[in-house]
């Protein structure tokens, strides 16, 4: 009888110990970092907002996650974190980009911690635009823009780069005082203003994409001031940004083979994503690229910006009940289909270049027809480049990406016809 009492008492004690351990493990694993993050940041961060390592001292899990961006050895079918040459994968770009530094060197992106190292390794011929090239590479940039004004964009790259030490970091997206998400790049704030929109009114979910739209967008260096500018006044899309440049008669360089002024698109990731199935359903960049994941003993928003295919479980299955295998196959199917149309569009654009080149070399060719061919080609090239430089091989918005490729093929064909006519009509 007495023994039974002891056994029961012991069992209760053991049960309490086990429950306590389970609870502690649960509490650690689910420590709500966002609650902790609601407190003001420590003074050391507020005093050194651009020094990523200082933030790292107080947010060690986020820092470890950020440092994973230094990995550079994983490949998916069309993405991954390897720094590979785009010119090797897409040799036709050497011809389409003739006359631009991009025809000599053009890399796939890799992790944020590499941003400064990689821009520094680019040869001088690519950096004629000066300090402007640094706009999306370091958290020290907003203060430099304030200090130097337009000179920041105009001064030689080699002079301005001496002022920056840290690659893309915490204060690019977080307020050093409150830790709230914030927008630091004037180009995005101004692009919103010109459309009559106030970016400070953006919701939290919008900010989870807009912080990326500070850099993952197409831009150009404004006439005169050379200020980094988003050509969004007519709208975000390929046809609307084309109109923006046409209306203002702006071109970035004269392509020597077709002898007409063209503009170079730069990774319009945000622009393409807007209006996609996911965007329309309220999904943000951070939902797929910064999923809630375990880091050390805590759960945090992943700060390892990389292909979501390297961690489909975390990135997709929060919303999709299908397994990782199925989702991976779906993504590859979408990308393969997009790639097939991309290949057709590149071939047609290449043929347009060669035909215009031949017309230009033909003595007595009809100049009005050549001019028409060049006008069609300008459009064909912008639509093609806009879509092909956007990351994700079409996945972010397959329908729209394919539509603009189809239009590019149409305009390239019209350019070919007009150039053929120019040669037929020669005196
Ligand atoms: C629905 C999920 C999803 C959303 C939302 C999303 N992406 Fe992606 N993203 C992907 C997938 C899938 C890929 C393709 C990765 C691959 O091919 O390995 C990708 C690729 C990329 C890449 C290239 C990565 C690489 O390895 O080549 C970048 C950069 C990128 N996305 C940025 C963004 C930005 C910026 C936004 C918001 C404007 C965004 N993504 C929104 C799923 C998403
Ligand atoms: C490219 C933008 C970006 C950069 C750079 C960035 N973060 Fe974040 N961070 C985010 C986003 C987006 C969230 C999610 C916020 C939300 O959903 O409200 C987040 C959330 C957080 C949170 C809140 C807890 C959580 O995990 O959701 C902390 C703390 C944090 N980040 C710390 C850091 C630190 C430290 C650095 C630098 C090493 C950093 N962040 C760099 C975009 C960024
Ligand atoms: C301050 C500018 C800046 C901001 C803000 C920014 N990025 Fe990037 N991102 C870059 C640059 C520059 C690179 C390429 C770095 C390199 O290759 O050296 C890059 C690369 C990437 C890659 C490719 C990584 C790889 O391993 O291939 C992904 C994915 C990505 N960013 C997603 C995002 C997402 C999602 C956000 C928003 C939460 C974001 N970025 C915010 C500038 C930025
Ligand atoms: C935050 C939630 C969320 C996340 C994260 C998410 N998705 Fe989705 N996804 C959706 C919603 C919502 C839809 C639209 C469903 C519908 O219309 O029925 C969708 C649709 C899709 C579709 C169909 C697209 C179409 O045009 O019909 C595919 C494919 C897809 N998702 C793949 C992915 C992959 C791969 C990932 C991870 C990289 C991912 N999703 C991450 C919510 C999400």
Q: What do these coordinates show?
A:
The protein is built from 21 helices and six strands. With 427 residues, the protein is mainly alpha-helical. It has a domain at 8-36. The strands form three sheets. It has a two-stranded antiparallel ribbon. A hairpin with a 2-residue loop joins strand 5 and strand 6. Helix 19 (324-361) runs antiparallel to helix 20 (367-389). The longest helix is centred in the last third of the chain and has 38 residues, at 324-361. The protein is globular, with a radius of gyration of 26 Å. The termini are far apart. The structure holds heme C (HEC) (4 copies). The site of one heme C (HEC) has 24 residues, from helix 8, helix 13 and helix 17. One heme C binds at residues 277-278, 281, 283, 287-288, 308, 315-316, 318-320, 327, 330-331.
Task: Please provide a brief summary of the model.
By secondary structure, the chain is mostly helical. It contains 21 helices and six strands. The longest helix has 38 residues, at 324-361.
Helix-residue proportion? 40-55%
The residue ranges in which pLDDT falls below 50 over 5 or more consecutive positions are: 22-32
Structural class: mainly alpha
Oligomer: single chain
> What's the order of the H and E elements?
HHHHHHHHHHHHHEEHEEHHHEEHHHH
Distance between the termini: 120 Å
Helical region count?
Answer: 21
Average residue-wise pLDDT: 91
Strand order of the largest sheet: 1-2
Strand content: under 5%
Rg result: 26 Å
Bound molecules: heme C
State the shape: globular
EC number: 1.7.2.2
Keywords: Calcium, Heme, Iron, Metal-binding, Oxidoreductase, Signal
Catalytic activity: 6 Fe(III)-[cytochrome c] + NH4(+) + 2 H2O = 6 Fe(II)-[cytochrome c] + nitrite + 8 H(+)
Enzyme class: oxidoreductase
């Amino acid at each position: 009888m007495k023994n039974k009492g002891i056994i029961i008492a012991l069992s209760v004690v053991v049960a309490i110990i086990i429950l306590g351990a389970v609870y502690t493990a649960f509490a650690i694993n689910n420590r709500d970092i966002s609650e902790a993050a609601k407190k003001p940041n420590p003074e050391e961060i507020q005093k050194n907002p651009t020094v990523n390592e200082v933030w790292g001292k107080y947010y060690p899990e986020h820092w470890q996650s950020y440092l994973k961006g230094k990995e550079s050895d994983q490949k998916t079918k069309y993405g991954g974190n390897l720094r590979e040459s785009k010119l090797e994968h897409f040799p036709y770009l050497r011809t389409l980009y003739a006359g631009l530094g991009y025809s000599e060197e053009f890399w796939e992106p890799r992790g944020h911690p590499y941003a400064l190292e990689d821009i520094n390794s680019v040869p001088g011929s690519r950096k004629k635009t000066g300090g402007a090239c640094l706009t999306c590479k370091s958290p020290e940039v907003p203060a430099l823009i304030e200090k130097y004004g337009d000179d920041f964009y105009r001064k030689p790259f080699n002079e301005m780069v001496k002022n920056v030490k840290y690659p893309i970091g915490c204060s690019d997206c977080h307020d050093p005082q409150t830790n709230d998400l914030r927008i630091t790049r004037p180009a995005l704030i101004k692009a919103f203003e010109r459309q009559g929109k106030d970016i400070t009114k953006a919701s939290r979910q919008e900010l989870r994409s807009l912080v990326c739209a500070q850099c993952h967008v197409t831009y150009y260096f404004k006439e005169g001031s050379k200020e980094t500018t988003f050509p969004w006044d007519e709208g975000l899309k390929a046809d609307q940004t084309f109109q923006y440049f046409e209306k203002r008669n702006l071109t970035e360089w004269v392509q020597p083979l077709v002898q007409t002024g063209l503009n170079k698109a730069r990774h319009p990731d945000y622009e393409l994503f807007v209006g996609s199935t996911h965007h329309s359903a309220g999904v943000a960049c951070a939902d797929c690229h910064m999923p809630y994941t375990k880091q050390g003993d805590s759960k945090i928003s992943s700060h390892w910006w990389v292909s979501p295919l390297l961690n489909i479980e975390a990135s997709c299955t929060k919303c999709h009940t299908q397994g990782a295998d199925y989702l991976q196959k779906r993504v590859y199917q979408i990308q393969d289909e997009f790639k097939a149309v991309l290949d057709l569009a590149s071939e047609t654009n290449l043929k347009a270049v060669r035909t215009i080149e031949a017309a230009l070399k033909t003595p007595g060719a009809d100049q009005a027809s050549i001019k028409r061919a060049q006008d069609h080609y300008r459009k064909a090239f912008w639509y093609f480049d806009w879509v092909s430089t956007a990351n994700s091989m079409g996945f972010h918005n397959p329908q729209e990406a394919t539509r603009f490729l189809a239009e590019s093929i149409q305009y390239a064909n019209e350019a070919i016809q007009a150039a053929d006519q120019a040669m037929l009509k020669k005196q």
